[in-house]
Amino acid sequence: MSMNVGSPEGGDDEDEVVSAINTTPLVDVMLVLLIIFLITIPVVTQTIKMELPKETNIPTQTKPENITIAVDKDGNMYWGMQKIADTKELFDKLTKAGSDGKPAPAFQLPQPEVHIRGDLNARYEPIGKIVYTLQRAGIVKVGFITEPPPRGG
After folding, report:
1. Nearest-CA neighbor of 78 among 114, 132, 121, 120?
2. Which CATH number do you get for residue 113?
3. How distant, in Å, are the alpha carbons of 83, 116, 134, 146, 150 from that of 128?
4. Per-residue model confidence as pLDDT tens digits over 46-64
5. pLDDT, tens digit, for every residue of 89-138?
6. pTM, whole model, 2 decimals?
7. Domain for residue 102, yes or no?
8. What is the DSSP letter of 74?
9. Domain with 105 in it
10. How many domains does the chain have?
11. What is the DSSP code (8-state) at residue 103?
12. β partners of residue 78
C-alpha cells in the first residue's frame, strides 16, 4: 500500500489557481427562473376571447344634402351657421328637410347624412339630446366629426 502525498515532481505547490468558471450555479438559477416564467405567464395573459372592432378612418364626403349640426363649449346648437334655440326647433328643421315634412318612414330617400361637430370641452348632454332628436326624426345616417391626432405624438 502506497500513498502519494504532494506533487509528483516534488514541488511544494499548495493550491493551483483554477482559471475556469464554474457555471453550474448559474445554470441552476436560470432553469429555476425559466420554470417560474413558464408557470406564471399563462396566468397573467388570461383574458376573455372576443373580437375587437377594427378602427377605420373614412374621410368625409361633403354633399350638398348633408346636414351639419355643431355644439359649442357652452352647449349652443347650430344648424350650419344658424343658431338653434332647442331640440323642438331642431326636430322641426329635420322634418322639413324631408320631402313631405313627415318623420320616417315617409322620409326622403336617399336620406341626408347628419354630421355632428362637438367642441372638445362641450358637455355630453346637448349632444345626447341631438342624437335622441335625430332618432325621433327617423334619421339613420349620423356621424361625428373629429380631428385626427397630431402626428409624431
Report:
1. 114
2. 3.30.420.270
3. 18, 11, 10, 16, 27
4. 555 655 555 556 666 666 6
5. 999 888 887 544 454 444 556 778 888 888 888 888 998 999 999 988 88
6. 0.53
7. yes
8. T
9. 67-145
10. 1
11. -
12. 70, 83
